[in-house]
Design a protein that fits this description.
Helix content is 23%, strand content 35%.
Length: 196
């Protein structure tokens, strides 16, 4: 896709770092729209579920009756989840002491905070494989989930120290890390070019 201004991408703005995703969508030239209620999904081409706190996101998703509408939307539209967004997209959460109910849209299992608590957050360079071409990106792991199982239908696009951190299944894309913290839109452009 080259005419990004024709894309309207929703940002799940219940909680989390959605403003940085909005900034990157502006850099791409796409239109962003806040999603807090089910009616906000109307007319969207796709959706980004940002990082944040998955327990709070889970509670608010149910409080605003968004769970079923999100599942229905994701059956027909592209969805990209980063960090807590990946947790919400997963099939299962290991050691789920907070009782988060993931959407189960991607056949992966995750361990929340699998790369450590806030104090252990870090940035590193990753090699991602986008359309068969390796590219280097900067990735921030902030209380990041660790993928512990990958289903057969899931394609691994990047690994960190031998473990998958960036995955795709059909119309769903997810990363353990944040790429929206600076102005590098490599991952967002991949999402726009390959999912619409």
């Amino acid at each position: 896709m080259k005419d990004y201004k024709r894309l309207t991408i929703g940002l799940l703005t219940l909680q989390g770092d959605f403003e940085r995703h909005r900034h990157q969508l502006e850099l791409l030239g796409a239109v962003s729209k806040d999603v807090r209620l089910s009616g906000d999904l109307a007319g969207l081409d796709g959706l980004i579920i940002p990082g944040g706190e998955s327990t709070t996101m889970n509670i608010l998703m149910d409080r605003f009756d968004l769970r079923r509408p999100l599942l229905d939307f994701a059956r027909e539209h592209p969805v990209y989840g980063t960090c807590a967004g990946m947790i919400m997209l997963a099939k299962n959460i290991e050691n789920n002491l907070s009782g988060v109910s993931p959407l189960g849209l991607m056949d992966i299992d995750v361990n929340r905070n699998g790369y450590g608590r806030q104090i252990y957050s870090f940035e590193d360079e990753l090699e991602v494989h986008l359309n068969g071409v390796p590219k280097k990106i900067k990735a921030a792991f902030i209380r990041a989930p660790r993928i512990t199982r990958v289903g057969e239908a899931v394609q691994v696009l990047a690994e960190y120290r031998g473990q998958p951190v960036f995955v795709r299944q059909d119309n769903i894309l997810a990363s353990s890390f944040h790429t929206e913290l600076d102005d590098d839109i490599t991952v967002l452009k991949y999402f726009a070019d390959n999912f619409f």
